């Protein structure tokens, strides 16, 4: 069973984080949404506190989320998915449309994305936990590969004390090293979801281009696309006020 944080009451709202993220990234927004919904913030397979496994694909992650909904007797759900979590949400909605009421996709399209996390993976793999580095030493190593401060801080949230004096990453880095190509795969061409759908992109991000609208409409005929200013790929963290207002007006 997937690890989750549950807040509030009412119609279920599931939140699915992106690659190398976890439920903690959505804690503040989750509490805000919990004023109107029963919010379930999940850790997806091989992330956060959820199970680690050699299996890693969108199909298996969708199965995890579907089984989570069954175990918690959830139906008529709304779902927010960011980046990789958005791909999971798209596949869930198109293969189990009876389960989903409204779909919100944050800064990812249904298209194929080439690998672009090589520097991040190199930085993560450069950390040798066997020598028991401190948090500062881990960040110092990663800085050589990942100069962007915000990205490093996002990744550092995955550090935890496995035991006194021994840090580790919460995600399953070994599987990501071998299954990275799974992250970029497109939504299968024949899958369509006709219920209300909102795509939100960051104004400074290039993940959803104007030229992608036709493909989005192919899979999601009712979709609208909103752009959040002053935000990149982590739009929910970089402009949380506008992100919240955009989502809540769509859900209501």
Summarize the structure.
The protein is of the alpha/beta class and 252 residues long. It contains ten helices and nine strands. The model has no long low-confidence stretch (mean pLDDT 97).
Task: Supply database-style keywords.
252 residues; 7-stranded mixed beta sheet; two-stranded antiparallel sheet; 10 helices
In terms of quaternary structure, what is this?
single chain
Low-confidence stretches: none
Task: Assign the structural class, choosing from mainly alpha, mainly beta, alpha/beta, alpha+beta, or little secondary structure.
Answer: alpha/beta
What's the order of the H and E elements? EEHEHEHEHHHEEHEHEHH
Largest sheet: 7 strands, mixed
What percentage of the residues does DSSP assign to strands (E)?
15-25%
Mean model confidence by pLDDT: 97
Computed CA radius of gyration, to the nearest angstrom: 18 Å
Helix share of residues? 25-40%
Shape: globular
Query: End-to-end distance, in Å?
Result: 30 Å
């Amino acid at each position: 069973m997937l690890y989750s944080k549950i807040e509030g009451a009412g119609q279920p709202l599931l939140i699915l984080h992106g690659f190398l993220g976890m439920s903690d990234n959505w804690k503040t927004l989750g509490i805000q949404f919990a004023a109107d919904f029963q919010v379930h913030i999940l850790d997806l397979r091989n992330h956060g506190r959820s199970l680690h496994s050699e299996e890693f694909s969108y199909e298996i992650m969708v199965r995890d989320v579907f089984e989570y909904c069954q175990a918690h007797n959830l139906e008529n759900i709304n779902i927010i998915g960011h980046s990789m979590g958005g791909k999971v949400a798209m596949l869930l909605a198109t293969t189990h449309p009876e389960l989903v009421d409204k779909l919100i996709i944050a800064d990812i399209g249904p298209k194929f994305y080439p690998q672009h996390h090589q520097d991040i993976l190199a930085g993560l793999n450069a950390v040798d936990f066997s020598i028991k580095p401190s948090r500062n030493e881990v960040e110092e190593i990663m800085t050589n590969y990942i100069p962007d401060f915000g990205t490093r801080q996002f990744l550092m949230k995955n550090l935890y004390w496995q035991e006194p004096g021994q840090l580790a990453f919460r995600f399953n880095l070994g599987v990501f090293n071998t299954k990275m190509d799974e992250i970029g795969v497109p939504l299968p061409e024949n899958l369509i979801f006709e219920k209300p759908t909102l795509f939100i992109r960051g104004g400074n991000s290039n993940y959803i281009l104007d030229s992608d609208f036709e493909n989005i409409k192919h899979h999601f005929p009712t979709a609208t696309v909103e752009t959040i200013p002053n935000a990149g790929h982590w739009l929910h963290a970089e402009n949380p006020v506008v992100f919240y207002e955009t989502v809540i007006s769509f859900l209501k």
